[in-house]
Write a structure and sequence with these properties.
alpha+beta; globular; 6 helices; about 20% helix; 6-stranded antiparallel sheet; 19 strands; 7-stranded antiparallel sheet
């Protein structure tokens, strides 16, 4: 299963260090196969999106994923990919950027010809082969149709997909330079959220988060004195405030640290897939036992 990590410390820019693969031997011990790509997204002081990502096809690419990356931003998104659609190439590696927004997704969407037809001119935003990038382009189209309202655009895109396409999961994180949105639908895979108090449970502790599977580790000394909201595919420390997003629930963290959670999908997908419906690479990538 792909790993998602998103964080907002808005309105503050904070320093954070990320390792997209935690330890060189952890994957050999805990996983059945290597990831297919890793990526980190952040923003410069002027709001320019910064993407660092690499497919994992050789030893040199694995070294890229193991290196520590210290970045300063209000928002961050990280992703470790286990491919279901599209080859192991840079164009298929998350996160994706469109119109100044960054996006990473965990799930499977089928019936891609129908989705492509719905994109219209927004098909030009798609550079790879993944269902994820096409879904992002649909969200971008609906955001534009909603006059730039990101939440309304997400709700419209989710509704269209849920009513028409076969889906396993639409879990994703979308960030701008100042805001974060995260969505879980349906309940196939978990998506956790932590509204972390300044300094964590003790009130003075820096952030030190690590995936149990040895993928995605994040550290921030600045968060010993500032609050943050963290989203991840799994609980990443012992903080008691971790919660699961409900199926169909959209989390939004605003530019002044306003946090809202809104149910935008009330019904089950009309064409819901299960793991038993998947085959080969897609099934292996989405199985809970995958790291």
């Amino acid at each position: 299963m792909c790993r998602l990590f998103g964080m907002s410390a808005a309105p503050h820019r904070v320093h954070a260090t990320f390792w997209l693969l935690d330890a060189e031997d952890s994957l050999a011990e805990q996983s059945r196969r290597m990831p297919d790509g890793t990526g980190l997204g952040s923003f410069s002081a002027d709001g320019t999106p910064l993407l660092e990502k690499q497919p994992i096809a050789a030893y040199e690419d694995r070294q890229f994923a193991l290196e520590a990356r210290e970045r300063e931003s209000r928002t961050f998104v990280a992703h470790v990919r286990y491919a279901t659609t599209g080859g192991t190439v840079l164009a298929n590696t998350h996160p994706f950027e469109q119109n100044g927004r960054l996006f990473a997704h965990n799930g499977v969407i089928e019936d891609l010809p129908l989705l492509e037809a719905e994109l219209g001119d927004y098909r030009t935003l798609v550079h790879g082969d993944t269902d994820s990038e096409r879904f992002f382009a649909l969200i971008t189209r609906h955001i534009d149709e909603q006059g730039g309202d990101v939440g309304a655009g997400i709700a419209a895109a989710v509704g269209w997909v849920a009513d028409r396409l076969r889906i396993l999961s639409l879990n994703f994180v979308l960030v701008t330079a100042e805001e974060l949105w995260a969505f879980r639908y349906p309940d196939t895979h978990d998506l956790m959220v932590l509204q972390r108090r300044s300094g964590g449970p003790s009130g003075s502790r820096h952030l030190e988060h690590a995936s149990a599977a040895g993928t995605v580790r994040a550290r921030s000394g600045d968060l010993s004195s500032r609050p943050a909201v963290v989203v991840a595919t799994e609980r990443m420390d012992e903080d008691p405030d971790w919660e699961s997003l409900a199926s169909g629930e959209l989390l939004h963290v605003g530019p002044r640290h306003e946090v809202s959670r809104t149910k935008i999908a009330e019904h089950e997908p009309r064409h819901r897939l299960t793991l038993d419906d998947l085959t080969g690479r897609a099934r292996a990538a989405q199985a809970p036992s995958a790291p």
